[in-house]
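Example 3.2
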Amino acid sequence: MFTMKIKKAIIPAAGLGTRVLPASKAVPKEMLNIVDKPAIQYIVEEAAAAGIEDILIITNRGKGVIEDHFDHSYELEDKLKDNPSKKDLYEDVLACSNIANVYFLRQKETKGLGHAIMCAKSFIGNEPFAILYGDDVIINDEYPVTKQLVDAFEKTGKGIVGVKEVPRKDVSKYCSLDVTPHADNAALMDVHNIIEKPTEDQIMSCFSILGRVVAPPQVFDYLAEDLANTPEGEELYFTDTLARLGKEGNLLALDFDGIRYDMGNKLGIMKANCEVALSHKEIGEDFKAYIKDLASKI
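Structure, written as C-alpha cells:
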C-alpha cells in the first residue's frame, strides 16, 4: 500500500472553447450549464468527493466568472436566507463556495495542456496530484471516477490514467494507448506507450485517456525537459510525458466506471443536459414525460 495521500488537484480550464462558439464567446465553456449547475461545478464536486482538499483551476483571460462562481455572493445569499420558500436555493448557492479550497491561476500563454500543468508546479510541490480536464464531466455518484483513480494510485504508487474504449474513427481525436493486462489487478492495465492524435496506422488500441489522471510529482521534471525541446509556437503535449512514465513502467490505465460527457462539444452538451435532467430530483419525472411525448411525434 502506497501511503502518500492525494490531497491536491489541477483543473485545466484555459481553452478557448472554439468548438462551441458562439456560446463560448462571452461565457467560458466550463460555465455552460448541465441543467442547473455549470459544468465545472460537477468537476470540482467530483474532486472533493475523492478527498481532494485543495484545487487549482488554471484559467485564461475572460474567465473571471469561474472565480466568481466559487466565491460568496453576499447580496444573493442575504436575499435567499430569510425566505423560508428559498431555503434549498440558499443552501445550493452557499455550497458553491464551500466545496473545497479552490484557487485560481491564469495561463498567460496558450501552449497546450502540458504547459498549463507546468503552471501549477509551485502549487503542487513534491506531492502526487490529480488532474481533471475542464472539458470532461464524468458522472458516477456512487464511486466518483477521481476516487477510483486515487484508490488505484494509493494501492500501487504508480501514475494512473482514466481510459475508455472509443470508436476507432474517434481515436485520432484523442490518443491511443499500448496496454496489456496488469498482473495483479484485473481492473488495471500496464501502459507501455501513448501516441497523441494518432494516424490510422499508429493506433495501438482504441483505449484513450478521457479526462482524468493521477500523476507523481516527477512529471514536472519531465515537462520541463520536454518544454525545452518543444519548437517555438508548438503545444507541449502532456501525453508525451505520460508516455515517458509508461516506457519506464510507472504508468497504469484504469478502465473507469462512469458516464463521460464532452462539454467542449455541442452534442456532448446536449447529451449531458438530457441525461442528467432525466434523473434530476426536481424536474426528472416531468422531463421524462416530455421526452416520451416528443419521441412519439418524431
